[in-house]
């Protein structure tokens, strides 16, 4: 039952993404840019944390 729910959720997400791209490509591009900026910020924060840990936790 959980597998079917997961498949349905993925299907709904794909249909929504296609609908968004077809009806408003500019807004879809903005969403993609926001997503990549979020991933980039998260990666930078992890890198800063790892650098801090490698330096012995000193500011």
UniProtKB/TrEMBL annotation:
It comes from the Bacteria. This is Secreted protein.
